[in-house]
Amino acid sequence: MQVAEPLTAAWRADLHLEFTFRQQKSILSGKRFNGPLVVQKPLYPEGEGVCHAIIVHPPGGIAGGDELFLDVASGPSAHALLTTPGAGKWYRSAGPWARQSLSFDVAGTLEWLPRETIVFDGAQADLRTRVDLRGDARYFGWEVLCLGRTGSGESFRRGSVRLQTEVRRDGRLLWTERGRIHGGGALLDAPAGMAGRTVCGTLVAASSAFSKEIISACKEVAATTVLPGILLARYLGDSSEEAMSVFTRLWMLLRPATTGREASIPRIWST
After folding, report:
1. Is the pLDDT reported for residue 44 higher than 90?
2. Per-position DSSP letters for 33-96, written without gaps between them
3. Which of 177, 107, 106, 187 lies closest to 143, judged by CA?
4. 174 CB contacts (<8 Å, ≥6 apart)?
5. Cα torsion 8, 9, 10, 12: sign
6. What DSSP element (H or E) covers 30?
7. Pairing mode, if any, of strands 38-39 and 51-56?
8. What is the pTM of this model?
9. Does position 153 have pLDDT exceeding 90, yes or no?
10. Count of helices and strands (H, E) across the chain
11. For residue 143, is pLDDT > 70?
């Protein structure tokens, strides 16, 4: 049975977060929000050096016309890890686009590790991410995209997804990518596209350098490309759980090599 887009007025939600490093502790020093996008109480499961925060969208799904804006600043030496409590759901739209804009200004270390994004058949989803790095800042982030609710027998036959990501360091463009996936379009089955698969994902790691040993280890886990200051890994398959597992394994390799800290799995992932 088809699940229609919820009959609610479109929402705009803004969340602005600022992390700073004070007295040997990374703290959430600034928070402003408007609309249904909030952050839970900061957590310190791995000590005071890293602040974990969970971003929550209380409606649980994004409908046509909704707009979400997340702006995060990580100051010098500050280390923040952000995640979400569950999958993001993009509902079928009667026509209007739904939009999510992520803007990260990083002078310390920022990790954006959300759960998967599920795009319902008929959704109109626009996802944009911009990362501005300063000095020797470090960033880890990923996006796992599920086209249709395959567990319910739904395929992505209508609608569209627009994706745009760019990473800059001190104003200089390191990497950018744009794409558009049409529901029922040729790209879904094309060998150079989705090749009949329903889940795709990209992991982005930005650091001053990656050792040959780490690059080799990452290539054993997933398809990996290295550019100056950027490491990219891809997933293409039919399982969001597998995609999350692959990216988590990569993160567990990259994090200690670039930050000196072992990976600490967010507790919310186990609930």
Report:
1. yes
2. EESS-EEPPPB-BTBTTSEEEEEE-TT-SB-TT-EEEEEEEE-TT-EEEEE-SS-EEE---SS-
3. 177
4. 133, 167, 168, 206, 227, 228, 229, 230
5. negative
6. strand 25-34
7. antiparallel
8. 0.94
9. no
10. 2, 17
11. yes
